[in-house]
């Protein structure tokens, strides 16, 4: 039996790439010098596609692959995968939930500490010699007793909440539906922003949540408030956020994700009241290995005729 043909749109971890090469005839679109010509040559044979959250797969690419049966992404987010195009053809989609939850929640807490305790500015104060010249650094704001509002109380949102409690913070949330939890439920992002000292975004990206955190929501977080985004840049009106950070209508922001990646808006890098991270919340060796293994295991289940481990939808 010939091995099934598999298209790599974006590579996963080395050990799992070796596993793919042992089980499939692998075609590396990610390495192709002329991707259009390469795809035209291999497309009719491709039965499976491997991608990542930042790369996804477009409707045009799905249309170009007539034998495609499954798309496996090494990400929990599916906002760059044209799910409609896949569903219309009965193409399975798998993602990698749960295995990345703890790392992403850790980075949310890191960004909270970096912004509220002004760790980025404190580092620069020591490194520049300002401490010796200008004296003690300005006082910052305690976490204990502060209200953390989480927009999207799913796997990652709940893990963030669990980390906030030992710091003595209060948790509130907004989601599409109320959850059986002890945290206060707010009916809208606006209501959550008015309640929060620290507003954390943990929803999916995509059309459903585009600019859900609007200019009005940002202004409700306010001059003493902090916006943390570990979800997707598209969930925030980024231009409104930058303007509010520049003129003090928003106190500070801790951002792992941006409207345009990897070229984050230059205006952000000149602000003193931000902490920036290169979309790296799941970026540990352990978690990326676990995500990549889930990609391999989902594909193996599919070609063995077994139930998929983590199907989308
Ligand atoms: P999840 O378990 O599906 O949770 C998503 C939550 O968002 C749910 O509580 C859902 O509410 C809520 N939600 C969806 N649409 C909403 C809306 N319009 N308004 C308010 N709440 C809404 O997903 P997860 O595993 O926690 O992952 C969340 C997202 O984190 C991913 O989709 C991805 O974009 C992002 N992420 C980022 C990184 C990174 O490296 N920065 C890594 C992993 C994931 P209901 O339960 O009421 O439907």
Overview of the molecule:
With 313 residues, the chain is an alpha/beta fold. The chain folds into two domains: 5-95 and 286-312, Rossmann fold; 100-276, NAD(P)-binding Rossmann-like Domain (Rossmann fold), CATH 3.40.50. The chain contains 13 helices and twelve strands. It has helices at 14-23, 35-42, 59-63, 83-89, 101-116, 119-127, 130-134, 155-164, 189-195, 215-221, 238-247, 266-269, 285-304, and strands at residues 5-8, 25-28, 46-52, 70-74, 92-94, 147-151, 170-174, 184-185, 198-201, 226-229, 252-255, 274-276. Helix 12 links the parallel strand 11 and strand 12 (274-276). The chain is elongated. NADP nicotinamide-adenine-dinucleotide phosphate (NAP) binds next to helix 8.
Defining key terms:
single chain; 313 residues; alpha/beta; Rossmann fold; 2 domains; seven-stranded parallel sheet; five-stranded parallel sheet; 13 helices; 12 strands; 16% strand; elongated; binds NADP nicotinamide-adenine-dinucleotide phosphate; oxidoreductase; NAD(P)-bd_dom_sf; 2-hydroxyacid dehydrogenase; hydroxypyruvate reductase [NAD(P)H] activity
